[in-house]
Write a structure and sequence with these properties.
The chain is an alpha/beta fold. Helices cover 44% and strands 21% of the residues. The longest helix is centred in the middle third of the chain and has 20 residues.
């Protein structure tokens, strides 16, 4: 029987050929048998020497792309060859799959372009752990080839992998807007591990000139230890987060003595231009009550103007006046937030030199959270990190087309 069409579709070349196909409507399955010509020789997978003869064979099966709604499997005798150059007995490389994979290359390519994993698993009738193995392999292979030699400005942030204090740290190239590294934890060792990974991909920690992060002490220690020439810019989003938390704490304390603050939490976390018409009317009605929360809110709004100052000198003058106001507000949460900013004064002012923030990471975190919601969570941190590379790594995958 002539199987030239099937061989062309599978991309087979000599000495490989299709020898049999079995199609079952009842089982909704197509099985294709592949074999090599008798007397064929192969290339040694170790040294590339040609003329290696088959020593023995082992029957193997691979899942292939569906034939319409029918599952398709490839079967073949995989030869082990004896290298003529003395490498020993090795299993040959096959054109339709990679070593130790139970899927064809085209099937793995399909997996790489469809999300989420649970949907793929249900669609092709495979357990999702097998799908994750494919994703891990291709992401790790692509990362080996990644070039970080031009990385100069880095942003770092963490996300909670699950409820509680189980964190994953992500490190970004702020110029190329790509994820460089993800790892469990958010301590100094996590930053050191990133520096090692950066070097392994052709980067130089000594050439990193700017790092943007929050005020987490472990990050600061890690940057100072592993990136000695980098200036730290404390991220504006986290600075404002500190103030938002302070305003909310003032509100919570004051709500114990007044009913007008009930159900107003999110009102004080918004900027005036983001308020709905209903929220604006509510805010206007609260101004007549001489609330401590309203004073805290105005201090928070004023701090935002710091980032709009024309240069570092003017910005520092502005920040000094704001600091005096905040620390004399008689609002303890606001005072503590201002003192936190004071302890990180230079890193806050570095905004005017670097003009960098982790806004990119905040957007990336939103994508991760959305992916987690669609997948109803990831069972392991490794899965979550792999998904992060797929979403934001800008990696180049060697996949068949």
């Amino acid at each position: 029987m002539n199987y030239s069409t099937l061989e062309a579709a599978l991309g087979l070349t000599a000495p490989w050929k299709v020898t049999e196909d079995r199609f079952s409507v009842e089982e909704k399955r197509l099985d294709i048998t592949i074999d090599f010509e008798p007397g064929s020789t192969f290339t040694c997978p170790e040294c590339g020497a040609e003329g290696a003869k088959a020593h023995d064979t082992q029957e193997r099966t691979w899942r292939h792309l569906n034939f319409f709604q029918h599952e398709t499997y490839l079967h073949a005798r995989v030869p082990r060859v004896e290298c003529p150059q003395g490498c020993g007995i090795k299993t040959v490389e096959l054109p339709w799959t990679r070593s130790r994979s139970g899927f064809t290359a085209l099937f793995e390519a399909l997996i790489m372009i469809i999300m989420p994993v649970a949907v793929i698993a249900a669609m092709v009738g495979e357990h999702d752990t097998r799908i994750w193995r494919v994703l891990h392999h291709h992401v790790e292979e692509a990362r080996r080839e990644a070039d970080f030699s031009e990385v100069r400005r880095v942003g770092m942030d963490e996300t909670a992998s699950r409820r509680g204090h189980n964190y994953i740290s992500f490190f970004f190239d702020l110029d190329e807007k790509r994820l460089l590294y993800g790892a469990e934890g958010r301590d100094q060792g996590t930053v050191s591990a990133f520096a090692v990974d950066l070097s392994a991909h052709g980067g130089d920690p000594d050439q990193v000139s700017q790092v943007c992060c929050d005020m987490w002490p472990a990050y600061i220690k890690g940057v100072n230890a592993s990136f000695p020439n980098a200036e730290i810019t404390f991220d504006r989003f986290h600075i404002m987060k500190i103030m938002n938390q302070a305003v909310d704490e003032v509100r919570r304390q004051e709500a114990k003595t007044t009913d007008v603050l009930k159900k107003t939490r999110y009102l004080w976390l918004k900027n005036p231009y983001n308020l709905t018409a209903k929220q604006r009317r509510k805010m206007d009605s609260l101004t007549s009550h001489n609330l401590k929360t309203a004073r805290a809110y105005q201090i928070r709004l004023t701090l935002q103007e710091f980032f709009e100052q024309p240069d570092r000198e003017v910005g520092e003058t502005f920040l000094k006046r704001w600091y005096f106001w905040a620390t004399h507000s008689r609002l303890e949460p606001i005072i503590q937030a201002a003192k936190t900013i004071k302890r990180h004064w230079d890193g806050v002012l570095n905004w005017f030199d670097s003009l960098i923030s982790t806004g990119l990471l905040e957007g990336f975190n939103s994508l991760i959270q959305a992916a987690k919601a669609r997948a109803r969570g990831y069972r392991t941190n490794r899965n979550l990190i792999t998904m992060a590379y797929l979403i934001a790594g800008k990696l180049k995958y060697n996949l068949p087309t």
